[in-house]
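Case study 2.
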Amino acid sequence: MTKQHKAMNTKSEDHLELIKMQTEFALIESMLRSKTLSAMVLVGVVLFAAFGYFLFRMAGA
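Prediction:
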């Protein structure tokens, strides 16, 4: 390992940086910049919810 890499591993991260590293944060950040991605995510969520509802109805509950 290089000295710089070791220094980066030992450096403490602040909370804002840890939040920015989350996948969900990156997705939301990308969605704010892209209308197409926002539409695709919205369609995916709706289809996933519809599939869940379909399975719920098929189970007879």
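The mean pLDDT is 85.
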